[in-house]
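Quick one, tokens below. Sequence please?
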């Protein structure tokens, strides 16, 4: 199947199909099983601008609303990362006496709280009302709307132009990328920067991290595709930085053309992407085969554990676990529950696969033989915290980059 590219109107050719899926953060109450929204989770690459994107999308109001489950402050490493980000912006970016920092998708205020505490002028744009309220409780100023060209003009009229526009794990969620970039172009100060941190296609392909593919991630960026997007919408890609978040992301910095000298990192990563054939069909063909192999190995291992009469419990219910459990057809028969520290996920079911989510105590009160680590990007933090599980003889199962036991 193919569709028209959301960036350039070119032809997007499908390369991987993860089947019939529901929404990654659609954790539902048992009584709401009949109201699930299904779609086909498939990804393709534009033959013209190379942007990798979903073929089918879930309408944004179904994804972001007053019961949005993802709370960015849920992990220690995220809190530290975004606090560092905030300090970095305040130290190095804004010029002038009264800088203005805007965050698209500020969620529970994990980044902006530090900016607010410092008394720096800021605005978070956050459509999900519940997390917007959490941010407000931290003293963050929030506009409870979707960021687009319309809201951007309204913000400019009220507050003036922004020295920094930031987005983390949000820019790749916004299907109407043209409206987003027109908005950024309208709001950005002449010497301002648009900085965003998003999952990297190079990591997804390189580590077979197929669980990064889900309804909210409409785009899967590379340096090459972001450069093409920036050019198309009148901005320039001036810096890239690899960061460890979510298993491997890139932080892109865009500015108005000829305002900043691009750092050598841009060309270096572009060259690396060429060497890795990151925009070539054979790379995606191999990825598709790797994904099928991981599915086969994981299901075989879980069946073997069940046949041996051993217990396995899931650890961490990130949105990613929805893709994995539904694609691999793993239900409560193979993984009876998943423990997760997010209160709003507990007592709910993973959408589609209907595996119950329970609090972490359900894990620690009665250790299973194996813990399947869905929150693999927090492996260090979680394994350190749950040291006594290992001490008691428990074993961790990971499936990225391949199925293995540690
Ligand atoms: N920045 C945080 C949260 C990422 S989750 C982090 O990196 O952890 C993505 C967030 O983007 C959600 O809170 C969602 O409500 C918000 N979002 C989705 N579409 C948006 C849009 N068009 N404008 C602004 N925020 C959006
Ligand atoms: P994320 O990778 O998208 O941040 O999601 C991680 C999920 O794992 C989130 O739902 C919270 C959960 N989690 C735990 O349950 N315990 C932990 O110690 C950590 C770090 C995360
Ligand atoms: Zn395109």
């Amino acid at each position: 199947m193919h569709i028209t590219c959301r960036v350039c109107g070119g032809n997007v050719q499908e390369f991987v199909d993860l089947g019939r899926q529901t929404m990654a953060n659609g954790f539902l109450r048992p009584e709401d099983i009949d109201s699930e929204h299904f779609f086909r989770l498939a990804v393709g690459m534009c033959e013209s601008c190379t942007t990798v994107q979903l073929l089918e999308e879930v309408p944004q109001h179904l994804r972001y609303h007053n019961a949005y489950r993802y709370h960015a402050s849920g992990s220690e490493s995220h809190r530290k990362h975004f606090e560092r980000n905030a300090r970095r912006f305040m130290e190095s970016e804004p010029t002038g006496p009264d800088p203005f920092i805007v965050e698209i998708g500020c969620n529970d205020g994990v980044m902006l709280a530090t900016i607010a505490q410092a008394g720096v002028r800021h605005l978070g744009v956050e459509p999900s009302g519940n997390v917007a309220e959490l941010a407000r409780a931290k003293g963050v100023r929030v506009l409870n709307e979707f960021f687009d060209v319309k809201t951007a003009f309204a913000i400019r009229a009220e507050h003036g132009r922004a020295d920094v526009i930031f987005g983390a794990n949000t820019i790749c969620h916004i299907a109407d990328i043209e409206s987003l970039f027109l908005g950024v172009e309208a709001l950005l100060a002449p010497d301002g920067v648009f900085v965003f941190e998003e999952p990297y296609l190079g990591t997804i392909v390189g580590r077979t991290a197929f669980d990064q593919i889900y309804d909210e991630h409409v785009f899967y960026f590379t340096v090459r595709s972001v450069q093409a997007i920036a050019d198309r919408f009148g901005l320039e890609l001036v810096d890239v930085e690899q960061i460890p978040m979510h298993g491997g992301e890139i932080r892109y910095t865009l500015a108005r053309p000829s305002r900043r000298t691009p750092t050598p990192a841009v060309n270096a990563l572009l060259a690396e992407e060429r060497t890795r054939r990151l925009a070539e069909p054979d790379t995606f063909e191999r990825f598709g085969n790797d994904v099928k192999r991981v599915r086969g190995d994981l299901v075989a291992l879980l069946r073997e554990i069940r046949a041996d009469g051993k217990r396995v419990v899931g650890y961490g219910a990130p949105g990613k676990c929805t893709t994995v459990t539904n694609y691999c057809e793993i239900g409560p028969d193979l993984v009876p529950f998943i423990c997760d520290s997010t209160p709003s996920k507990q007592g709910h079911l993973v959408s589609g696969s209907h595996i119950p989510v329970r609090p972490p105590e359900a894990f620690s009160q009665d250790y299973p033989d194996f813990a399947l680590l869905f929150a693999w990007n927090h492996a260090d933090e979680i394994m350190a915290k749950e040291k006594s599980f290992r001490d008691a003889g428990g074993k961790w199962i990971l499936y990225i980059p391949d199925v293995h036991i540690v």
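The chain has a mean pLDDT of 96. Residues 74-75, 316-318, 340-342, 375, 377-378, 381-382, 385 surround thymidine-5'-phosphate (ligand 2) (CB under 6 Å).
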